[in-house]
């Protein structure tokens, strides 16, 4: 018997509730009827990174030293991007290996570059990148024979082609994502049979991109139908199965341009820049791409127009991601934010005005209301060292936002107003995701429980008879069937393993571009 985790990026029960009620997802409904689960609460910010690592380690980001895909280094005035070597913790499969069990990991974000396991690891999008020394044709999986099998027998792809993006979300891009859903499950089933791991983790990631751009429209329905069909292949085999997500997806009915608000309040200042002039003249990436597509010159222009010029052309929404930092008047800026709301101050914590500035920002943000509906734009604002716990809290953003219901926070500078009714995404991120345990060892109570994402790793370890490290934030959940072996066995604890890895060279620009295309860096 293999214990299996099937991770569905951005899944939540409200999104798929009507499809479950209508009988359109029969295999998932069967798992619900035979299992126990409910809502899983992710760590803030509710993003792919850090939450896939919060799941795998059972820890909050303050013990991982990574708080999102990237961070803003206000001292050196630059974006810093993270890869798998930056996380300071062992993961649940390392502990399984240490107790003599094998593990396979497929497509989990934040696993690039892949590490050696007693089993196998296949790195996942969106952060897996090419460099001068590694390409996505090779170097995406360990050990070599697994990568060779995936490449030669399954024509395995790490990323979809063509890549879906705010300006490219037609039939070809949707089909590429759906094909990748099929490929992920085919790889999981093939490697289960070939390698026979004791534990298998599979993440389906790019279906989340469909949810961002279509929310619950037809492309997303098609993706969930395919996911459900593949889930059926894991039933009737007496596997213990966990279905879970890193966070949930909500319908976006308000966009909060946080850097515009900071600018309006006098906390952020920009210099005169060509980006703004181009946008006022009606020259944006979306419009340029539309013209290039009509002239069938997209590929040609991408090769002949220097990258530096391409990056200067703003999006319809305005200046985003690394361009935000390039247009700041740093001497007059006291705060700048990333999308989903982490705020970084240019003042250092030992500055006499640091704490007063944080208090001002907290009070101002928590008082914000939608001008028409009166709904809170921000539920709460936390000081980084108060929300997180661990040895790396001093590296956390200065402030963390818990976004209001239905609110997506964008870092774009350019809109005239800080609050809008719509933006790039139809579906935004929210902390409430899903978890569902099903199989011989679990109760059949349906969706009656609530958990934290950090509770999943210790629960899996205990399910498989492994000891739980004593530095985890999560706890073993009460989900086991009466009389089952895990229910009768006391939880064992152990000292943690070191999770430090040697850093490797990565291509930040390539990763940044992919994240931006998907809308993660707005």
UniProtKB/TrEMBL annotation:
Residues 486-501 have a biased composition (Basic and acidic residues). It holds the Pfam family Phosphodiest. Residues 485-522 are annotated as: Disordered. SUPFAM superfamilies: Alkaline phosphatase-like (SSF53649). Residues 502-511 have a biased composition (Acidic residues). InterPro entries: Alkaline_phosphatase_core_sf (IPR017850), Phosphodiest/P_Trfase (IPR002591). GO terms for molecular function: hydrolase activity. This is Alkaline phosphatase family protein. It comes from Halobaculum marinum.
